[in-house]
Write a structure and sequence with these properties.
It is a single chain. About 30% of the residues lie in helices and about 35% in strands. With about 70 residues, the chain is of the alpha+beta class. Helix 1 (about 15-25) packs across helix 2 (about 40-50).
């Protein structure tokens, strides 16, 4: 699967597992806590952070993953 980014116009390859995890980040659930993921999902989320498709931040002492807005 390919995720197309708007600005700049780039394409990033994601595997099926990464694409499934990205689908979790919708308008109803724009952010997820680290504790909400199992070990495998957390590993995939970290891969998406490395690909710059997710952002990992700390809010109120908790680690939060958010989809990057471009």
């Amino acid at each position: 699967k390919i995720v197309e980014l708007i600005k700049p116009k780039l394409s990033v390859y994601v595997n099926n597992e990464e694409a499934d995890l990205l689908k979790l980040f919708d308008s109803e659930n724009p952010k997820w806590l680290k504790r909400d993921f199992d070990d495998r999902q957390l590993q995939v989320a970290n891969q998406l952070v490395q690909k710059d498709l997710l952002k990992r931040t700390k809010e109120d002492g908790r680690i939060v993953f958010k989809r990057r807005i471009r």
